[in-house]
Design a protein that fits this description.
Helix content: under 10%
Largest sheet: 9 strands, antiparallel
Strand content: 35-45%
Structural class: mainly beta
Distance between the termini: 7 Å
Radius of gyration: 15 Å
Order of helices and strands: HHEEEEEEEEE
């Protein structure tokens, strides 16, 4: 897995992005507790996360999946509204709506843990905004992807995943 740091740096370079050494050293690597990082995992750099807003880079290896989840309303805090903007590569975002008959990516092998199959493909420069409490998941295409996320406050550890075995707080060291 030592090669992952090289892949991350290459993906950021291809996206035209620069992170400092400190930012690179503090990237969040999550395997969602599934111990299959290359298939279901995510690399996250958080620029800011306050009570009002959040900005992140989501770095995805080729064919990597961020599993299906929803950002729930908690108390008076409405679920997260988020905009994804593709900076490099392609990413398929799956949301509620009519099922896409022939998705442009292979569906997950643990298909029982996925329930929404309306595909929106984002290429470099395209973006999609999801309303609060929207169930979604996404998968990078063959070249990987770098996706900027702009949202209301993020409380990732409270995300609700369709796969009940997922532990969002799971972090791995590479």
């Amino acid at each position: 897995m030592a090669n992952i740091h090289t892949q991350v740096n290459q993906l950021l370079h291809l996206a035209g992005m620069y992170l400092t050494k400190h930012e690179i050293e503090n990237l969040e690597f999550t395997d969602f507790g599934l111990n299959n990082f290359n298939q279901e995992g995510l690399i996250i750099h958080t620029y800011v996360n306050t009570l009002r807003c959040c900005a992140k880079e989501l770095i995805m290896l080729p064919q990597q999946i961020c599993p299906e989840h929803v950002h729930p309303t908690i108390g008076k805090q409405q679920g997260k509204e988020e905009t994804f903007r593709c900076r490099y590569g392609k990413v398929s975002v799956f949301i509620e709506g009519s099922k896409t008959p022939k998705p442009s990516v292979d569906l997950p092998t643990d298909i029982d843990n996925y329930t929404v199959f309306h595909e929106v493909v984002l290429e470099k420069g395209q973006q999609l905004t999801l309303n609060p409490n929207t169930k979604h998941w996404f998968k990078a295409h063959s070249e990987g992807a770098v996706v900027s996320e702009f949202s209301t406050m993020s409380n990732d550890d409270a995300d609700l995943f369709t796969n009940k075995e997922i532990n969002r707080a799971s972090r791995i060291r590479l």
